Amino acid sequence: MSGSVGLGKEAGVSEMGQLLDEMIGRPLRAFFLGMEMFNQRVDSTRAIDGMFSRVAHALSQPRSRNDRSEATSNLSQGSRMNNEPATGARINQLNSAVFTDKDRLLLDRVENALADGRALKRWWDQTYPNGFAEKFELERVFNRPDSSFGFFDQVTLDDVVLPVMGNFQEMFYDQPRTPASLNREAALWMRDQTREFVLRYFMRVSAFRQPEVYVESERRNLPSYLKSLSWCNEPDILRQGFGFTQHYYKLRDTGQIGKFPAGSESAIVDLREIGRKYEWIVVKVRIFDFSFRFRPFGSNGPELSFPLTEESYLVLSRDFILDEDETSPDYLGRYGLGYSFIRDPAQGLIGYGPGQFRAAIEIINFEVQKSGEIRVSMIFVADRPERITNISLNPVDWSFRLADLFSFGMASRLFGPVRNSFERIPTGLDSIDPVYGFISLVNALTADHATRQLCISREQLEKDFLAQHFIQHYATIVGSLLTWRQIPDWLDSNALPEWVARGRSS
Fold it and tell me: Are residues 54 and 169 in the same domain?
């Protein structure tokens, strides 16, 4: 009897699912399939024609039970990049007592992310400085011998053409202040200091806190519901720069993959050991104070701000480490570091940025000239975004979120079983990107005049992203300069403050 009741419930849920799908799911799918045309890089006429064709096709075609699974299969087959899970037996054999499922998912992507990074670096070496398809001024810097530019281009990775963008900037870092008679000795001393700082300590001190203005107020501790109304000053922690921690490694001689011991995460290894002791290491970076801002109605209108605070995993190998002494008559030494980004296995609200790059590299190189002057160059190359956000179109999810908002969370508690039944209904809906959708729709309605006259375009949004990335790099280097000048001798490891040696600042 109970089995009959259970079958009856399942049949009822199935019939309800088909009804909801025909009344809601199919029209919504047709609408958003049409709107997807505006996310393509095509002119407005083709976009409108494609939109109507997609809508008509989606409304007229018969519904198949396997539509969702087939769509998922096609999506996974069409997903690009080596920065995807590999089928390495070594990863599957990792000690289950040491590595979690999350560790394995990440480590499964390391080798392919590294291969993509090497390919991007080779492309950069062959293309810089004047081989870019489109090169544009990114920032104007006055009264300083600095330079920068952004670019758009294409890179072939595994026989797939990947649109890329990036930026380059070069800036003055420091110089010795000594009498002319000591210039040679001072320059050599500066070279040795720079080598030690860049290859051993830079990744430990690349994050910092800004000064805080704080006026003490005499008051008692307030309950949480009153804190939002209080005018009393609260300490506001504002961090900037790149915060690195190390997590995994692969030994060069044995190929063994391991995890760095607990407590040593911030004390990044000497980068000169990569290639000698380690084949590669995996670090995690937190890019502080970095967000993506979107103003759909112009510079004076409301602003949507997406904080890109996700932590991103990176892989460093010998291919990205620069350690050269006097290999050119123009400089005494060149030292640097770089890494390839590993794509996060999980997908969140933000569809582009740290952790969501399909393929990306970052390189920071320091050059000590014959005079002892230090210059630093920064390179960033990444895929151009396909979407900025991933907004869920699941009507059950949004309905209960809205109900919880007005019922202080009681809706999900009271109607939990009902929600579970509805969530079993296959609606076939995925997600949309309102940012690119808005851009494409506005240009379709204005025959691309929004792009030509108002700069409402993907390219403008991408240039804004690169400009903000430029500022973040600039702030990181300037912040590290304060630490660099604070230490009198970077070669005297015994005299270094503990926060430098351990990589743990405030």
Answer: no
Strand partners, 334: 324, 367
Domain boundary among 44, 78, 112: 78
Angle at 93 between CA 91 and CA 94, to 5 degrees: 70
pLDDT tens string for the chain (506 positions)? 444 444 454 455 455 555 555 665 566 666 656 655 555 555 655 666 666 566 655 555 655 444 433 333 333 334 445 566 654 445 555 665 589 988 999 999 999 999 999 999 999 999 999 999 999 988 766 656 578 899 999 999 988 999 999 999 999 999 999 888 899 999 999 999 999 999 999 999 886 555 555 555 565 666 776 666 776 666 555 555 678 999 999 999 999 999 999 989 999 999 999 999 999 999 998 875 555 565 666 666 666 665 555 678 999 999 999 999 987 888 999 999 999 999 988 776 677 877 889 999 999 999 999 999 999 999 999 999 988 777 766 655 656 666 666 666 666 666 666 556 555 544 445 567 778 888 888 888 898 888 889 888 999 989 988 988 888 888 889 889 989 999 999 999 999 999 899 887 65
In a domain, 397, yes or no: no
pTM: 0.74
Copy the structure tokens of residue 400. 């209960």
Range(s) of the domain holding residue 365: 89-209+236-390+457-501
- Output the DSSP codes for 410-477: HHHHHTHHHHHHHHTS-----EE-HHHHHHHHHHHHTTTHHHHHH--SHHHHHHHHHHHHHHHHHHHH
Longest CA span, the chain: 101
Number of domains the chain is built from: 2
| Residue pair 51/37 in contact by the 8 Å Cβ criterion | yes
Cβ atoms of 271 and 199 closer than 8 Å: yes
Does residue 157 belong to any structural domain of this protein? yes
> Is residue 467 one of the residues assigned to a domain?
yes
- Residues 97, 137, single domain; the answer is yes
